[in-house]
Amino acid sequence: xxxxxxxxxxxxxxxxxxxxxxxxxxxxxxxxxxxxxxxxxxxxxxxxxxxxxxxxxxxxxxxxxxxxxxxxxxxxxxxxxxxxxxxxxxxxxxxxxxxxxxxxxxxxxxxxxxxxxxxxxxxxxxxxxxxxxxxxxxxxxxxxxxxxxxxxxxxxxxxxxxxxxxxxxxxxxxxxxxxxxxxxxxxxxxxxxxxxxxxxxxxxxxxxxxxxxxxxxxxxxxxxxxxxxxxxxxxxxxxxxxxxxxxxxxxxxxxxxxxxxxxxxxxxxxxxxxxxxxxxxxxxxxxxxxxxxxxxxxxxxxxxxxxxxxxxxxxxxxxxxxxxxxxxxxxxxxxxxxxxxxxxxx
Length: 346
Description:
Layout: E1 17-23, E2 31-32, H1 33-40, H2 46-54, E3 58-60, E4 63-64, E5 70-71, E6 76-81, E7 99-102, E8 106-111, H3 128-135, E9 160-166, H4 169-180, E10 185-193, E11 200-204, E12 206-209, E13 217-220, E14 230-239, E15 242-249, H5 256-263, H6 286-298, E16 304-312, E17 319-323, H7 328-343
Parallel strand pairs: 9-16
Antiparallel strand pairs: 1-6, 2-5, 3-4, 3-6, 7-8, 8-9, 10-15, 10-16, 11-14, 12-13, 14-15, 16-17
């Protein structure tokens, strides 16, 4: 379940695509919609259908329904998801993965920046899902017709860090429910422009796709547009014109940390989508401009890392917590700003 965090059936972008449409026969007897779809969609488990209903992805005559809705004659039943339907099969590719933990139920991966999580929008090969299709080709959950097998959350292409992948249907449903109920634990570290006035704070604001630019998201302070989103942050280190912060997700909306930090006027360093790839703080000296340009080259992406991930194991019930070190580009960036702060003359 959302880059976004980012959730399988979470429609953070408010743009849905119809994947299946069935019209009930005139003589249709009252039948639960999950059973109705189970009869129509071969190879799809009832648990997955119920999860889709819980997330509002199953609609009857244009209205979202729960799995116990009774289908009536001539009802139009649709399954709508937040990515386009694609007829091509998922291509299994032998792509190396940095696996930090694995058992029969799940796997935790430390994703490098630059690796797309799932196919779509022009990235149909070379993704994490392509790698999973190869690695788990003999597992029932991983088949060529499922664009997101095993995924219960996601992180952006240019965000690095920890991601959990389910290997069984039970594990997927159990983990997805934890993300949906906000009981999973996710902590990120980011380098942002400026120093927030408060060393700790909470950012609350609905997030939805921008009405001006559909490629990005924004905060909507009024009305019902967008989805409720909450981010807690702590300043870990002040570095002059930038800060190292920790962000704790209470919700998992697309681009949530990036959008919320921009909203409080502290965009992520080198975040090209949200204005962080220009000099937003600092002096007018030429040497400073050259310094920042060199920093952009060191970390040529938004400076965001999914540092820790916690959840309850779906089979053992054990509390599991995984930590990952900052990647080399962000570590070098922090060191460079530390040195600048120690030697600067304003």
